[in-house]
Amino acid sequence: LPITRTNAKEKQIGFGLFLLTMVVTYMVYVFFDYKLEIPNYIDIFTSGIFFTAMWYMALKKIENWSLWILGDCIAVPLFAYRGLGMLSLQYFIFTIMAVMAYIQWRKILQHKT
């Protein structure tokens, strides 16, 4: 597949996947009778972002990198807050990689037009 931008229909589907993923993740928390606190709601939100980013990545949509960057920027402090320093560092590195990939994909996309 060539690198492209999302159209209106794909954005709607992506938003639906985002919401569906958040609902499913929330239901998993509820099913296991887990006490939900603010970090858990942030985790639910980032799960929605990351799932949608994966779908866009599979379709080679440049917007996938924006979602990865957004999700990583939320995950880094979340993991640090939870005392998961190595995981926080890993997601910080993922953020740098996502920024680099976005720049590269944008160059490819601009070269095609």
Low-confidence stretches: none
- Which percent range fits the helix content? over 70%
Principal-axes shape call: flat
- If you compute it from the alpha carbons, what radius of gyration comes out, rounded to the nearest whole angstrom? 16 Å
* Helix count, DSSP H or I runs of 4 or more residues: 4
Structural classification: mainly alpha
- Separation, N- and C-terminal Cα atoms: 16 Å
- What percent strand? under 5%
Q: Mean of residue pLDDT?
A: 97
Strand tally, please?
A: 0
Reading the helices and strands in chain order gives HHHH
Largest sheet: none
Could you describe the 3D structure shown?
This protein is mainly alpha-helical. Helix 1 (8-31) crosses helix 2 (38-58), helix 2 (38-58) runs antiparallel to helix 3 and helix 3 packs antiparallel against helix 4. The chain has helices at residues 8-31, 38-58, 63-81, 85-112.
